[in-house]
Amino acid sequence: MKKEKSCGAIIYNNENKVLIVKHNEGHWDFPKGHMEKGEDEYQTAIREVKEETSVDIELYKNNRYTINYSPKEDVDKTVVFFLAKSKSDTLKKQDSEIANIGWFSYDEALEVLTYDTAKELLKKSYSDLNSK
């Protein structure tokens, strides 16, 4: 079985709105992407968010969430997300991968996110953010 790993972030702005991207394949999720050789999880998350959204972020390294799934037969994928705060609200999507992008309130995000695992991550990260 082939193993893949991606990293990304669940990003909140100063108004506690969360950043969600719509991938060209049609699903709404948090920004993430594959690790490159020589990168650690933090570097990958920061780079991928910047590439997909143009947003600079600050990671809360103690708030790390993982999900595992099989995107296709014989592939085991792990995705690591970090709780993060945006350093700016200006968005510019990466056209080659992202169809749409936006800041959503917690309730809006629960409606928009495609996957139940993403909705669970939203709930956990929102709770963690508000306990800081």
Task: List its salient traits.
single chain; 132 residues; alpha+beta; Nucleoside Triphosphate Pyrophosphohydrolase; 4-stranded mixed β-sheet; 3-stranded antiparallel β-sheet; 27% helix
What does this entry look like structurally?
This protein has 132 residues and is of the alpha+beta class. It contains three helices and seven strands; from the N terminus they run ββββαβββαα. The N and C termini lie far apart (39 Å).
What can be said about this structure in brief?
The chain is α+β, with helices and mostly antiparallel strands and 132 residues long. The protein is built from 3 helices and 7 strands, in the order E-E-E-E-H-E-E-E-H-H.
Task: Break the fold down into its secondary structure elements and pairings.
Elements: E1 2-12, E2 18-23, E3 28-29, E4 32-34, H1 41-53, E5 57-69, E6 75-86, E7 98-104, H2 106-112, H3 116-130
Parallel strand pairs: 1-6
Antiparallel strand pairs: 1-4, 2-3, 2-7, 5-6
Principal-axis shape: globular
Q: Estimate the mean pLDDT confidence.
A: 95
Helix tally?
Answer: 3
Q: How many independent structural domains?
A: 1
Distance N to C terminus = 39 Å
Q: State the share of residues found in helices, binned by percent.
A: 25-40%
CATH class call: Alpha Beta
Radius of gyration: 14 Å
